[in-house]
Amino acid sequence: MKNIFNYSGATISDFENAIDQFGWVIYENALNEGLITQIINDLEPAYLQRREIQTQNGIETNMEGTLHHLLECDNFSLHFLEQMFCDKEIRFFLGGNYILNGFSAVINMKNDRPYVQNIHRDLRSFTGNMKMMIQMIVLLDHFTEENGATYLLSGSHKEDIKPSEEYFYKHADRAITKKGSIILFDSNLWHAAGKNYTENARKVLTLSFTKPFFKPMFDFPRYLGYEFGESLSESLRQVVGYNARIPADLYEFYQPPHKRMYLSSQG
C-alpha cells in the first residue's frame, strides 16, 4: 500500500495523497525506545487507578484495558505532546491551529473484549469534506495479525454508511507495522481493534485532535490548572487547549483581547 512512510522523510504531499485515498497513514520510526519505555512504565499505575474507578462506578464490563484522559502534570504525557509529532500533517488536515480532544491508551490483552473491538468511527456525526477531527494511534508494541493489529476500512471516510460486519472484515486492511510507529487517520473512517490471541499485552496510545472550537472530551486546562498553563510553552498551551477555553463568569469574559479565554486565533 502507498500509505506507509518513514517519519523523518515523509512530506505533506505524501500525507495529502494517502489520507485522501485511504483515509489513514502509517509513519514508521517516529518514537525512540527511551520514550516508548517511559510511556509503558507510566501506563501500569495509570491503568490500575482508572480500572478501580470503572469498577466502583459499575462500568467495568467491556472497558478492560482502556485508559482515558492520560494528560497529567507528572507523567509522560506533556513530554510526549512537546515533541509535536505529525504537527504539520495535523495542521494541514484541520486547516490551522488545533487542540487535543482526547488522550487515551489501550492495553489489548488475550481474551479481553473491550468496546474498541467493535466496528466504529470516532465521530458520531459524519462530516464528509469538513475536516473536524483526526485520530492518532501510537504503537508501543509491534502490530501483528496475532496480537490484534487494528482493522481500517480504506476509503470508508468518504461514506456515511456503517458497513456490515461481513463486508468490513472481508475488505478492511490491517495496520501491520512495528512499535514506534504512528498511525494517523480521518475520524470518519470505520475501524476496529483486533483481538489479541497471544500471551503478551499489545499497548497503544490513542489521541484525537480537533479544530479549536470543537468541544473536547475532557477539560484539560481546568484539570491541570490555569496557573499551570502559564509554565507551558506556546505550542503546548495551544495543543492542550489553553487558548480555547470557555469563560465561567463575567470577570473571565470581560477581558482585553490578549487575556481572553478564547483567543481570536482559534477560528
TrEMBL record:
GO terms for molecular function: 2-oxoglutarate-dependent dioxygenase activity. The keyword Oxidoreductase applies. Keywords: Dioxygenase, Oxidoreductase. Transmembrane segments: none annotated. The keyword Oxidoreductase applies. It holds the Pfam family PhyH. It comes from the Bacteria. InterPro entries: Fungal_Metabolite_Diox, Phytyl_CoA_dOase-like. PANTHER family: PHYTANOYL-COA DIOXYGENASE FAMILY PROTEIN (AFU_ORTHOLOGUE AFUA_2G03330) (PTHR37563:SF2). This is Phytanoyl-CoA dioxygenase. It comes from Sphingobacterium puteale.
